[in-house]
Write a structure and sequence with these properties.
ABC_carbohydrate_import_ATPase, 567 residues, ABC_transporter-like_CS, Rossmann fold, nucleotide-binding, transport, AAA+_ATPase, 19 helices, 3 domains, alpha/beta, six-stranded mixed sheet
């Protein structure tokens, strides 16, 4: 089935989310829509799926115009969509979820699931999904839940499958399996619209790439294009995709977490007995699929969690039990994972947001009075230092783009003397150019001698920044490994496998399909840096002769296992 979007425009008031977009998806093609968060990709797909009505333009199937009044019309026309956040009912079985919206009943009005079970088994066998129709969704791993979403579309005879940021919640192994599934679907004639901002995956699986920037198509490319070219098209200027980072020079360990447990209101241990330390002058990156305790861990450190046991010390001082303001005043800089909810007050000016944690301190306040001149002077300095794109610090922070909002949060937290810096999802929703800048600032803080903790679900970012990598799974610390540890080892650890087992398993399995059919990119083209392409990693000090590091459960800071991450 041939699909064509012709002149699609979607306006929300004065905001133009899609601006006369033309896209053609040929039968049996994997067509990628590449662009940064906020570029308009998901809006375009919501128009295609009938969730939004286009302001202008038309949709054609096999050269015939169609109009969708809702998702039901799109599905009837052969279009299926797997949303980034799954649309599944956790307490229902696979078969019940698949049947939702197209239920059939037996005599007497009872739900008939036999035909649905049969179709699920057929599709599962055809593509090797290994999905049990009677399994409860809440008992299935995330990667299997995604397969259920794909089955839902295929049961309804989808000829075109839309995958919206499908790897956002997957481990590297799950990602590899998904890309294989996409190739299988293509071989059976299904067309796929693949929405992503991850260059490595796009290059690995796409037949053609359409790049969208600020709601407009800015060009098309083949998967043979370099990541540097694709990144430049996404951002509109040349960017560097590698981080020039000297090896860490860790000093004494000044931040320690011991036997930390965080208990949710439900009674679940969302953080379960975690212990680790961070030295001055090193970056510890926490890796893991979203929802494995990272948020609760960082909130416990900041003083936002109520039911917490254990110990959190900074320079020997106990932080546990202190207020958020006391923790910040102790020298902790904190970048939350959701800048709009926890990092900024959108209606306040940029200048006011830059002093949110120091509004009552000199030089911005004297007694009960603030000094507007000092506040604006500080804003002018920080805006210039952090390259915040705005004509004035007096503008509301909510008017800034996502990347510039993140720069404001980072500027506020990094513009005072720190004894610990924590950044959770530091570049989420940020364009490639801003990522480059923010990564450099994080490394500069490390080099200033500050202990740094980064929490990221982007494995490329973890590999790029980390001096050591801690992996969380279901609230527990699976292990801490050196920088340069292989991606497949980290992926196995993110699924709960111990470091020793992950190293052994990765060493024994060289038959797994590569992520890309293309030759490995050079360091200049590889956004993750050479460590992503180096399975063993190279310990600092003897890059030519040192063998792959062993798999320690915990690697002490300051040891020789800190990886040489120079490019």
């Amino acid at each position: 089935m041939k699909l064509e979007l012709k002149g699609i425009t979607k306006r929300f008031g004065s905001l133009v989310a899609n601006d006369h977009i033309d896209v053609v998806v040929e039968p049996g093609q994997i067509h990628c829509l590449l662009g940064e968060n906020g570029a308009g990709k998901s809006t375009l797909m919501n128009v295609l799926y009938g969730l939004y009505e286009p302001t202008e333009g038309e949709i054609l199937i096999d050269d015939k115009p169609v109009r969708f009044r809702g998702p039901g019309d799109a599905m009837a026309a052969g279009i299926g969509m797997v949303h980034q956040h799954f649309m599944l009912v956790p307490v229902f079985t696979v078969a019940e979820n698949v049947a939702l919206g197209a239920e059939t009943t037996k005599t007497g009005g009872f739900l008939d699931l036999e035909d649905t079970r049969r179709k699920i088994r057929e599709i599962s066998d055809r593509y090797g999904f290994d999905v049990d129709p009677d399994a409860l969704i809440e008992d299935l791993p995330v990667g299997v839940q995604q397969r259920v979403e794909i089955i839902k579309a295929l049961v309804r005879d989808a000829k075109v499958l839309i995958l919206d940021e499908p790897t956002a919640v997957l481990t590297p192994q799950d990602t590899d399996e998904l890309l294989d599934i996409m190739r299988q679907l293509k071989s059976h004639g299904t067309s796929i619209v693949f929405i992503s901002h991850k260059l490595r995956e796009v290059k690995a699986v796409s037949d053609t790439i359409t790049v969208i920037r600020r709601g407009k198509v800015v060009g098309t490319a083949s998967p043979g294009a370099s990541t540097t070219e694709l990144a430049s098209m996404m951002v509109g200027r040349a960017v560097s995709l590698t981080l020039d980072k000297a090896p860490a020079q860790p000093q004494e360990t000044t931040f320690e977490v011991k036997d930390l447990t965080v208990i949710a209101p439900s009674g679940q241990h969302v953080v379960d007995g975690i212990s680790f330390g961070i030295a001055r002058g090193e970056i510890l990156a926490l890796a893991g699929v979203q929802g494995n305790g990272q948020t609760e861990l960082t909130e416990a450190i900041l003083g936002l969690q109520e039911r917490v046991h254990g110990s959190i010390t900074l320079d020997g001082d106990e932080l546990l039990g202190r207020s958020v303001k006391d923790v910040l005043n102790a020298g902790v800089g904190f970048v939350p994972e959701d800048r709009s909810l926890d990092g900024l007050i959108g209606t306040f000016s940029i200048a006011e947001n830059l002093i949110l944690d120091r509004y009552d301190q000199a030089p911005f306040a004297k007694g009960i009075s603030m000094s507007p001149a000092k506040v604006l002077e500080n804003a002018k300095t920080r805006i210039e230092e952090f390259d915040v794109r705005t004509p004035s610090g007096s503008l509301a922070a909510g008017t800034l783009s996502g990347g510039n909002q993140q720069k404001v949060v980072m500027a506020r937290e990094l513009s005072r003397p720190l004894r610990l810096f924590i950044a959770s999802q530091p570049t989420r929703g940020v364009d490639v150019g801003s990522i480059e800048f923010l990564h450099k600032r994080i490394v500069a803080e490390r080099d200033h001698g500050t202990p740094v903790m980064i929490v990221s679900t982007e494995l490329d970012e973890v590999i790029e920044l980390a001096d050591r990598i801690a992996v969380l799974y279901k609230g527990r610390l699976v292990g801490i490994v050196p920088a340069g540890t292989a991606r497949d080892v980290l992926g196995l650890m993110m699924a709960g496998v111990s470091p020793d087992e992950a190293h052994a398993d990765a060493a024994g399995k060289h038959t797994a399909p590569p992520l890309s059919d293309n030759p490995a990119p050079s360091a200049a083209e590889n956004p993750a840096g050479s460590a992503a392409e180096n399975p063993a990693g190279t310990p600092a000090g003897n890059p030519a002769t040192n063998p792959a590091p062993a798999a320690p459960s915990v690697q002490e800071p300051g040891s020789s296992a800190v990886g040489d991450h120079n490019e």
